[in-house]
Design a protein that fits this description.
396 residues; mainly alpha; Growth Hormone, Chain: A; globular
Amino acid sequence: MKKSIRYQLMIMMFLEFFVWGCWYATMGTYLSKIGFSGLEVGAAFSTVSWGAILSPFIIGMIADRYFAAEKVKAVMHIAGAGVLWYLSTILDPTAFFWTILVYTIMYMPTIALANTISFNQMEKPEKEFPLIRVLGTIGWIVAGLILGFMKLEDSHIQFQLAAGMSLVLGIYCFFLPPTPPKPLGKKPTISDILGLDALELFKSRSFTIFIICSLLISIPLAFYYAWANPFLNEIGMQNAAGKMTLGQASEILFMLLLPLFFARLGVKKMLLIGMVAWLLRYLLFAYGNNEELVWMLYSGIILHGICYDFFFVTGQIYVDNAAPKEIQASAQGLITIITYGVGMLIGSLASGWVVNQYTLSDNTHLWQTIWLIPAGMAVVAAIVFMIMFREEKSPT
């Protein structure tokens, strides 16, 4: 890969996750401030999952078959910028839900498109992708630091900042390396158009177990994204958004070490370590506090590098290796629909219900009980994966 193309992809990843990082981790704090209930906050976070569920259809119908991926990505980000700006003006829970749903349907496919554009330029994704993807983590960190130091965690300005950067990214996408649709060599069928060809990967037992466990671990994942920032703010941690970026800092470290871990550990051990890390994180949150046990909270935050890289980034590379080249974009869409889609949809709605159940009359929460619930979910996912997954020596 040419250096110029590598730098282009790095900038793309930086902007992609900067836009998301501007509002996703702190939206729960903002919505709680303006009077949304736990269920309404959970519903707002569930829109990300609905966007992820629909993204493979958008990719299968457009990016894989008819239009260049970078142009589809550009249009979605430019349109999304307008929706984000409007979102910053809404105070009604119902209107907010439908508006952010429109936005997430446009945004979520762009994650898979970013991966597709990147993988299309690579000869050895397991060595080249981590260096590209790490810039996305840096983008998320920069967004979190800006929100924390400018005290915007509970402000509507977070959506306006995301809107401005979404517009910049949309324009930038027109200058990315061409990623044309892949010719089928035959008349497209309904299965081709909807991207259902990726379902052939379920013929592999290991791939099926991987998908099932990805679904299971994504349910507790939603608890962290929706409620970690409100939790840390409620127990008195100052500049919580800025301190949460320690998790992304550790993500950078482990992202850069991924090639080494691949060689030493293999796919199964890496995925299992990632799942166990989610269990440990929630235990640390459950039993830590903002006083003498504050180190437990910091440890739970810093574990994000292992939690995310060892399971989700490793999973993306595993899927890319498992899928034939002509359906790689659809396969990336499939893992998106399972993790950020179905799994986090269940998790977002469940987390909203759980938080509502453990909300006290003074609007504080029984956080220890809340965090022990996703910890139990992570245990189940890890046990199923450890027993049933068999690592294939040579992926298809």
